[in-house]
Structures are given as C-alpha cells and as structure tokens.
Design a protein that fits this description.
With about 500 residues, the chain is an alpha+beta fold. Helix content is about 35%, strand content about 25%. Strand 6 and strand 7 form a beta hairpin.
Length: about 500
C-alpha cells in the first residue's frame, strides 16, 4: 500500500487533510462545507461519546433531545447570544417546493408556502432549551436541572476543514439550571474538569485550564472556562468550553422558581460542550509522517494480527494459534482484529494498519509457531520485539498502557518546551514567527490591546490560566500595568 502522504515539515495543513482522508476517517461531501464521517472515523467518535456519556452520567446528568429548529423570535430573546451567532445562522423560510413550470423536471420554492415565522437551524441550543425549562421549573424542588444532549448543529462557516471547522458538526451540549450562583459556578468548573480528565486520560493530550477573556467569551455568558491544547505545528486548539451563564437566559425566557420561603427568583444557568473537533485534535497531536497514531484508550482496534504464510496449511496452523491468543486478549477487553484477508499481501496490510494508527501490530509466521514466539510492533515508536507465547498476553496488556502513557508524556514534553515567557513585543513577535506555541505575556486587560495584537500578529489570548502566577508587570504591547500573564497563540 502506497501512502504518499505529504510530510508535516513540508506542509502541515496538507498533511492533516490528506491523513484524515487516507486513513478513512472522513471525506468532503456533496454539500458545501459538510463532511461524511466514515465508519473508522465514526468508531473513534463512538468511543469518545461512550466515555464522555459515562462521565456525564456519573456526575448526575441525564440525556434528552430538543428540536433542530428554533423560531427566530425565540432565538432573538437573549440578545448577546443572537448577535454572537447571527452571521453563522442557516434559516428556513419556506416549507414546500413545487414543479417549476418553466423548467420541466426542476423544482422551485413554492411562494405560497412561506413560513409565518422563519426558523433558525440551531447553531447552539440555549434558546430552545431555556424556553422549555420555563415549563419544567416552578419550585426549588425542581432544581438542579442537569441535562445533556447529543446532537448536530449548523454554523455556516465560509472556510471549512474536516473535523476542525465544518458547516454541520456533531457535539454534545450540556444545559443546567441551579438555585444559586455558587452552584452554577461550581457546575461550570466541574464540567471543565470532566473535559480535562477525558482529554488527558483518553486522548492523551495535555491541556491548560483557564478563563476566556471577555472578547473571547461565549455569547451570552458571564464567564467561559476552557481547556486549551497545543498541536504539533505550534498552534493552539480549544478542546472544550464550559460557560457560566449567570441569569441571562433565565431572564430572557422568564425561568423562575419559588425558593424555600416562597419568593420568586430567576434560576442560574450553565452550558458546556465538546464536538467532533476533538477528532482533529487527536489526529494533529500524535500522528506522524507514516499516518495516524491513536492512543489505545480510543483506538477502535487496539491490536491487529497479520499472518505470514505460503500455504493454506500454514495459514490454518497460524489461525489456530491466533484464535487462542484472541480469546485471551478479549477476556481482558482488548479489541483485536485478525487480518486474514487473502486478497492482500502482508506488506500491504502492515502499511494499511500503520496508516490507520492501530497501537500494536502482531505478525506471526511458521517460524514463530516453531519457536513459540510472536513479533510485536509498536505504532508510536515503530519498534519491534520478539515475545514468547507464554508472556504475550501480559506483554500486550502492559504495552497498551505504556503506549497510552508515552503518548501523553511526549505531547506534554512538546507543550512544556513550547511555552515561552516574553517581556517585550519584539520578543513576542520573534517567538511567534520562529518558534510558535504558547506565549506567556503580560496584558493590560483591555479589549483594545487584545484586538491590536490580534490584528498585527493573528495571535489571540487563548486563556487566562487558572494556575497562573500572580505576578505584577507591564503589558507586552501597551506598557500599562498588568496583574498577571496570559497565554497567547495562533490557533485553529
């Protein structure tokens, strides 16, 4: 199998696009800006979903589903939210087509089928959900309301990229209502931590927890908590956000409750979400010029076994040994694929599974059977070991854990070596152009300075780190006083 992948050093963007397609994760569709997620890519997303869904339910949340369409007046109810998403909205204006009398076989919009009120195709679901919560919440006994939905949303992006930015994408969005401000803030922080735990423990991607600046905040939120990751090209990627909504949506949709004293109060809200953009992060953080590198905790196939033989008799003997090994591995809940296709040679299979990022490849031939051994190859380091049959099960189990840990450590080392403190704007620009990564710099706290730096360098404030140093200094751009450093970077 010929991979013909562009290398990362040659053209990182082209490498990414080629890899997503050639590894059978996704492809562009016949609809502008929309993607088809292929079975192998969707299998990874399903594993992500399963783990996140488990974590949400363990923290007390329940799944529900809300409509795809939002009446325009309802969408406009929370002004900041409506303004924030207005440019990305797709709108339904008519409900029927009819035959075009001037063009046989063609259809046209039926002018008599205009909707009384236009419908927004949801870019996010706060409006429809909070209008529903008005009917669900009457008393403090109805709170907290902890709801999540798995859904698709539409944001009419002009420049799209598979997984990273598409007009339609899959995600989950949590929407919760609470009796007190402190409970809602606690929920926002809790879900940021859930996301961080998932991304670090399952995706093997280290993240920095922080707060967004007012400019970068979610439209309609009082505070946005985020986790930021660093890709191999030195650009940042927002891996998840959790928003403290205050009472903004409760007031917009008149969601009140009677407290223990019988007094009417507005509830406090949160929303939080991650999307198929995480698939892009997974590809960009670990993969190499040979193809995908998948962390074992999310790999649909953790071990692939390839037989090497010349006769049907040899294949039968190898298959018998492989079946025995497969049973033992599956008892440990290790997913195994036995690639016994007769239509492809071993070299083709090696290249294919390498491209698809399967963590461990086992090769077995007649000599291995004679010697009671297996050849085990690691996808992340491309190294091989000969392992005795008696110890193969434990070896594979331990190696999967080691690969998971090693991938995280490698990504962490890269990130740590790409956080650079700067104290002048000249230094800021030099690091941004020549090294990349996160730039730790003082900022005067104004949106004006933030915008000027963005215009001049295309770098944005990724977050105000929650564990940042309380260090007084001077803004790297304006020279005005600053109470602490923030992290800048170019980002996806």
């Amino acid at each position: 199998m010929s991979k013909n992948l562009t290398t990362r050093s040659e053209d990182y963007s082209k490498w990414y696009n080629e890899l997503v397609v050639k590894a059978d994760l996704a492809e562009n569709s016949g609809v502008r800006g929309c993607m088809v997620i292929k079975p192998y890519g969707y299998a990874i997303w399903e594993k992500m979903q399963a783990e996140l869904d488990r974590m949400f339910k363990e923290t007390g949340h329940s799944n529900a589903y809300f409509p795809l369409f939002v009446p325009k007046s309802m969408f406009e109810a929370e002004e900041k939210n409506a303004e924030g998403f207005a440019k990305e909205c797709a709108i339904v204006t008519h409900y029927r087509l009819k035959n075009d009398p001037d063009k046989p076989g063609k259809l046209m919009v039926d002018p008599n089928a205009k909707l009384e009120e236009e419908l927004i195709v949801r870019p996010t679901s706060e409006a429809i959900i909070w209008s529903t919560y008005k009917n669900w919440v009457q008393s403090y006994r109805d709170l907290p309301l902890l709801i999540n939905q798995w859904a698709n949303v539409v944001r009419w992006e002009m420049r799209t990229r598979l997984f990273l930015r598409t007009a339609e994408f899959l995600w989950q969005e949590g929407h919760t209502a609470h009796a007190t401000k402190s409970e809602a803030i606690e929920e926002s922080e809790k879900m940021m931590n859930v996301y961080a735990e998932f991304v670090e423990n399952f995706m093997a991607i280290p993240v920095i927890k922080g707060l967004k600046t007012e400019t970068e905040r979610f439209a309609g939120a009082e505070e946005t908590y985020c986790i930021e990751a660093l890709m191999q090209d030195g650009k940042a990627l927002q891996a998840g956000t959790s928003h403290f909504l205050g009472q903004n949506f409760a007031k917009a949709f008149d969601v009140k409750f009677a407290n223990a004293e019988g007094k009417q109060e507005y509830v406090w809200g949160t929303s939080w979400g991650v999307s198929t953009r995480l698939m892009g992060a997974l590809v960009m953080t670990h993969s190499d010029d040979q193809g995908l590198v998948l962390p074992p905790n999310l790999a649909p196939i953790q071990v692939v076994i390839v037989p090497i033989y010349k006769s049907d008799e040899q294949l039968n003997e190898i298959t018998s040994a492989v079946n025995e090994l497969t049973v033992q591995l599956k008892k440990l809940r290790i997913s195994v694929k036995y690639d016994d296709r007769t239509t492809q040679k071993p070299g083709f299979k090696f290249a294919e599974w390498e491209l698809k990022g399967v963590p461990i490849r086992i090769a077995v031939g007649p000599k291995d059977l004679e010697n009671g051994t297996f050849e085990v190859a690691r996808r992340d380091t491309l190294s091989k070991e000969i392992v005795a049959k008696d110890s193969i099960v434990n070896y594979v189990s331990e190696l999967l854990e080691k690969i998971q840990t090693d991938l995280f450590d490698k990504a962490l080392n890269y990130r740590e070596s790409h956080i650079t403190e700067v104290n002048s704007f000249e230094e800021f620009q030099s690091v941004l152009e020549n090294k990349g990564g996160f730039i730790s710099a003082h900022w005067d706290g104004t949106a004006e300075t933030e915008e000027k730096i963005k215009d001049l360098t295309k770098a944005t404030i990724r977050c105000i780190p929650l564990n940042g140093k309380n260090e007084a200094g001077n803004c790297v751009f304006s020279g005005a006083k600053s109470s602490g450093r923030v992290l800048f970077a170019k980002a996806y």
